[in-house]
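Progress against Task 2.4 (sequence-to-structure conversion) is shown through the following example record, which the project officer requested during the mid-term review.
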Amino acid sequence: MDYQTHFDQLLAVQPATDLQRIAKLWGASGNMRKDASLEVIRSGLNDPKLVAAFIQRLEPAERAALSFLKMQPAGMAQASTLAVAVLSAGYILPPTTNHYETAHSVFARVLAHHGLAFSQIDRYSYSYSSAYGSDPVLITDARLLEHVPTFSGLPLNLPQHPDPTDHRIRRPAQVVLDLIGFIEALRTVGGLQVNKNQTIRVSDQRKLIKALGWTDEWETFEGLRFYQPAPALLSVLMRMNILIINSEDRVVVGTNELTALPYDQIVRAVVSVFPNITNWFEYALSYQSDSMLYAASALRIGLIGFLRRLVSVEGYVAFSDFSHAFYRCVGQDYSLMGIHPRIPRPWNIPVNPTGSKTPRSDTAAIEAAWRERQWEEWQKHEEIWLAYALASWLFFLGMAELGIEGGQISVLRLTELGRSVLEPGRVVATPTPAAGPAWVVQPNFEITAFLDQATPTQIMALERGAERVQTDVYTASYRLTRESVARWLNQGETIESLLTLLGAATPQNVVTTIREWSSQFERITLRRKITLLEYASTPARDAALGSSTIGKPLGERFILLDPHSFAPKVSATIDYAQPTPLALKASTDGLVSIARDTLDLVGRAILDRWGEARNRGWQLTAASIAAATQQGYRVEELIHTLEQRIITRTTPMLLKITLRSWGGNPPNIALGQVILLRFPDSETADAIADGKQFEGLVHERVGPVSFLIAKADVARLTQALAAIGITASPFDQ
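Structure tokens generated for the chain above:
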């Protein structure tokens, strides 16, 4: 990465005593004037040999800090993020000296005192103790970064476990397929509208989720759940400039493409950005604060650094061991509560016991109890977050292979893809372009793509030209449809390029149908913001064209008005940019009539499909509904069309039941025979209903004097009535 930052200006505002200290690290001796100290430091920074020697003399944690900054944009990072990254890599930070300090504030002060990084906020950087919780952005010098090694952690020594019975893994091709599919789905829905507060409109986001076939909340990948993956991936891809906000305030696909890169570089690019997002959390929270979101971001960065220490570990490690080791690195200084431990260090424990004039005899016991409480709280909170992080985005990106026992993560290890991402020297094989397509096209328009043979570019092209139906470990199934061909052509491609993509072995019936779909597509033109005039008949339309109306004839009764001409006087106007106007009446016998002259063209076309034309209306019949459903149309679309346009704003319930029944989905209705028992008055009926001897014999009451009786109970009921001197005589129903 090309860094241009030099902190000469930051050096110039440092106190003379600090500059003297830094100059001595560059080889100066004795006390010097401020300008002389600056000259020594600048000369050292401009000499590559001196810089290399200077880097070698640094403490391991300081070298690791510079290595981490080298990975960041412009060599900048927040102090807490830098501290978490260095701690996670296994290095020890300088100790705090009082209860007000944090690990990152002390580390930032040390980095400033040694001339390695300075704060962009404070004039005098960290030449004084920071207030508790301050977290400035630190910046280093590009001349230093040229000579620091790649960021790496100390080896992690954890017991290894045997292979689990149930293990989950995602292959690199699956990961890239889902990433490309996400980008192409956004392209398909035409982008997402951004609100004034720079958030994405909820309805547009739901369209994207629907196009992906996902849900609003949890989505499952290979049996493991990922909370709200769409918002998370949107944030990541926008940070990567794969997605951009255009001049119309819409999130669209930019010019940066992932598909030209090998698998591991694609995933490395995503993993380098994912931890930084601060508008998403690994699971649903009842309360969500900015400090918690930023803390989660810092811990994600720490988790990536901690996983880097597993690169050389081939076997599985227990999740409990992994969590405890991660806690020992960062949990005593940081938590999801913010840039501080979940339980503050007790005030009666000296930070530096050796400096206390009267050391307490119980200090060790108090500190041990505090650390035990910290670990217990970690298991209740941060360990749960850690499990969700592994099972969601890290698993989705193919970084971790997880063993599952009892529905929980039991063991884990890095995948080959994960090792390659975290250790750039390793390479995961990406398929090389084959002589022909990496898929087979069937006569039924279905495509079976072999993921271990398809390059990212081929996957992207297939995502654009076909509908994905199913994804397995080694294959993905697609289907060619009229809509997918139209989408291909809408993106500026040609039908010949699609046929070339599919390959010479494409069945002839598929080729013929695709060409037919293409010809139909080319006969359709999409126009926006037009004025369309409708006339009662063709002669009336033609007469208007022969007079003062300027435009083009469309269909039998329409004129596409010239944009520079004025519309003639009309009886009714429909603005299609506004909600659908109410213009219909519907009766329970299926008659739909036009009540107002504002029925839109879409409503007319749909009713033409479902009904038989009548004077100013349509008659819906069993035959017309059956004919439409046989062509693949759904009754619910008709009902939705009616309810959008009926002036009473509701379709008669009986009509909806009738339409669904005609469409092949009738309600389950039972018809049976029962006996009616009728009394001369309500007083007698009440007495019988309350009688103990008639329990279970008289059932549902019908009106004030009658009951329904089951046929099987007639004999018993007759006997019970006879016992009290009553004889039931038959009557004509």
